């Protein structure tokens, strides 16, 4: 089975789970992203076919929401909150630190595919600022030291 076929087959299953209907498009896209960590073009094409909508419609939805990524992402997604509450508590210094440590800028993925860096505006945990979300874990009151520890742990464990 080629990679493209398996992406399409997996996507078909996802669309089916959501009733093979275009009304579930956003949930379908969320599921596809959860499965592949981004939205592969083959998956969008397969989803459009299965939901019987033009590819442009699915592509439009995929590009409209910033939560969706059309580019492959690393196994661990680091999201630095740059919202006001986090910003005043030093979020940009934390961003610098992540950029230097991982050697990538927001929107990029490390060569070993382990980390992708992203910035977001408020993740709804302002009281804990500055906040960094790694995959689904919220890390509040983030410090330079904590960053080293977290990255070290992930590197030791391999993919989370
Ligand atoms: S501003 Fe960072 S969680 Fe709200």
Shape call = elongated
The biggest sheet, with number of strands, parallel, antiparallel or mixed sense and barrel status, is:
4 strands, mixed
DSSP E strands, number: 4
**How large is the share of residues in beta strands?**
5-15%
- The helix/strand series, from N terminus to C terminus, equals HHHHEHHEEEH
Helix content: 40-55%
CATH top level label of the largest domain: Alpha Beta
> Gyration radius, to the nearest Å?
18 Å
- Low-confidence region ranges: none
Gross CATH architecture of the largest domain: 3-Layer(aba) Sandwich
Estimated structural class: alpha+beta
Strand order of the largest sheet: 2-1-3-4
Q: At the fourth CATH level, what is the homologous superfamily of the largest domain? A: Glutaredoxin
Give average pLDDT, whole number.
92
Number of domains: 2
End-to-end separation in angstroms reads: 27 Å
Q: Could you name the CATH topology of the largest domain?
A: Glutaredoxin
Our count of helices gives 7
The distinct bound ligands, ions and cofactors come out as:
FE2/S2 (inorganic) cluster
